């Protein structure tokens, strides 16, 4: 698995001026509008026209307080005026990062929605490195707050976000189950039972975070009944602002969301360095990402502090983890070279003597140019016993390898 589990919502201000986000409006006085999105690596990616000209790709993120432009060179190209510089904390809650405030920028999806005057944050550097870790050109993060005046419906199966005018909206689908949430700093938190082991029920508070590609991330030191199970693997659990997140990866027995049960959920466990950091986190015990939310259709209602869930097509599908032990990133001038970033000890990849910095040049006899990182991830998640044939470049050598996939957790 490429472990492209970026945690986008964990961006905390140390000294930020008031950032106004008037939000989007539906064009033409319509009562609803559909916004298509690309669903890649478990991220909702929306294309927006920035400042009336440039089409850019943004990840739709319910865990982000602000809309963020991750590439300052785009802001410079568009001659954006930066009002001031300030510091933010990254996902490790330790690393200070530099950002700038840009006021009165505009976003639009032609003939659908427009936001004529948005205040956004512009990162000094491209800390996220989306191209490297996703193999995709991503330019920023779109805070769900920008849509919060509307009822927001996310259909992962159709890859569409629908915005509904609140006054005329009426839910006609009784399969949706409403769940109350807490709104804190424009983010949604829900409290729900979770069982790491059978009959070990923990009541936990979770951030609803569509800016996370993983199914579930839990802090391992905030609740006595939440900890990595015995079969969990020590692992690099993701990448966020500030660097890698270290922890464990395993499966929990089950969790319950509004009466809907999900079993065997792949869960990433991260220990907080200091429990005082929970002040930044609103006392939460973890977060739910698209890897789990994508099993449902989701309705977000910020003004009434409610989400509603309905089973999607993948509701009963099992949660699949990498079966190779490989972490792969995109590299090179065109980000089209695939390089081994990490090999899990005692995994099929380690047993095949694949090493960090090996460059993969063929997969199952085809050049890697035929594959995206997402394609490679799917290949490495195929059924146990499946053989994956790789040709790697190590220095000046080209070496053929065979990985026999198996369950790791």
Q: What does this protein structure show overall?
A:
- By secondary structure, the protein is mainly beta.
- It has 3 domains: 12-164, Beta Barrel (Cathepsin D, subunit A, domain 1); 180-295, Acid Proteases (Cathepsin D, subunit A, domain 1); 326-404, Pdz3 Domain (Roll).
- It has 5 helices and 32 strands.
- Strands 15, 16, 17, 18, 19, 20, 21, 22, 23 and 24 form a 10-stranded mixed beta sheet that branches. A 6-stranded mixed β-barrel has the order 5-6-11-7-10-9.
Q: Summary?
A:
This protein has 409 residues and is mainly beta. The chain is built from five helices and 32 strands.
Describe the secondary-structure layout.
Blueprint: E1 12-13, E2 25-26, E3 32-36, E4 38-40, E5 43-50, E6 54-61, E7 68-69, H1 72-77, E8 82-89, E9 96-109, E10 113-123, H2 130-134, E11 140-143, E12 151-155, E13 160-164, E14 177-180, E15 182-184, E16 187-195, E17 201-208, E18 216-219, E19 233-240, E20 243-251, E21 254-257, E22 260-263, E23 266-270, E24 286-288, H3 290-293, E25 296-301, E26 306-311, E27 326-331, E28 337-343, H4 348-351, E29 359-363, E30 366-367, H5 373-379, E31 387-394, E32 397-404
Parallel strand pairs: 6-11, 7-10, 17-24, 18-23
Antiparallel strand pairs: 1-8, 2-10, 3-13, 4-5, 5-6, 5-9, 7-11, 8-9, 9-10, 12-13, 12-25, 14-26, 15-16, 16-17, 16-21, 18-24, 19-20, 20-23, 21-22, 25-26, 27-28, 28-29, 29-30, 29-31, 31-32
């Amino acid at each position: 698995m490429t472990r492209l589990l970026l945690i986008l919502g964990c961006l905390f201000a140390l000294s930020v001026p008031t950032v106004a986000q008037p939000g989007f409006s539906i064009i033409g006085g319509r009562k609803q509008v559909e916004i298509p999105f690309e669903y890649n690596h478990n991220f909702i990616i929306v294309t927006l026209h920035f400042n009336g000209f440039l089409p850019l790709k943004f990840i739709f993120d319910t865990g982000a307080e602000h809309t963020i432009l991750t590439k300052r060179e785009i802001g410079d190209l568009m001659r954006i005026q930066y009002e001031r510089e300030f510091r933010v904390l990254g996902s490790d809650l330790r690393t200070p990062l530099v950002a700038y405030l840009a006021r009165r920028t505009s976003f639009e999806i032609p003939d659908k929605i427009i936001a004529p005057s948005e205040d956004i944050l512009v990162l000094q550097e491209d800390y996220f490195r989306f191209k490297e870790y996703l193999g995709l050109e991503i330019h920023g993060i779109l805070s769900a707050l920008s849509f919060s005046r509307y009822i927001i419906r996310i259909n992962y199966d159709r890859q569409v976000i629908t915005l509904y005018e609140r006054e005329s909206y009426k839910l006609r689908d009784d399969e949706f189950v409403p769940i109350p949430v807490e709104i804190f700093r424009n983010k949604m938190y829900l409290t729900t039972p979770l069982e790491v082991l059978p009959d070990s029920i923990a009541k936990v508070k979770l951030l609803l975070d569509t800016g996370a590609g993983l199914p579930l991330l839990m802090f391992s030191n905030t609740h006595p009944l939440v900890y990595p199970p015995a079969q969990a693997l020590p692992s690099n659990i993701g990448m966020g602002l500030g660097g890698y997140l270290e922890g464990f990866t395993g499966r929990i027995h089950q969790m319950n969301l509004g009466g809907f049960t999900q079993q065997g959920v792949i869960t990433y466990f991260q220990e907080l360095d200091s429990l005082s950091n929970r002040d930044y986190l609103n006392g939460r015990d973890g977060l739910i990402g698209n890897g789990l939310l994508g099993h449902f259709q989701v309705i977000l209602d910020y003004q009434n502090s409610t989400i509603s869930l309905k089973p999607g097509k993948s509701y009963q599908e099992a949660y699949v983890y990498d079966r190779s032990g490989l972490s792969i990133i995109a590299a090179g001038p065109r980000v089209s070279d695939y390089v081994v970033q990490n090999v899990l000890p005692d995994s099929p990849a380690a047993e095949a003597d694949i090493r960090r910095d090996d460059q993969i040049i063929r997969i199952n006899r085809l050049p890697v140019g035929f594959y995206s990182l997402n394609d490679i991830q799917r290949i490495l998640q195929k059924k146990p016993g499946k053989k994956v044939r790789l040709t790697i470049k190590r220095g000046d050598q080209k070496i053929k390898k065979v990985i026999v996939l198996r369950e790791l957790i």
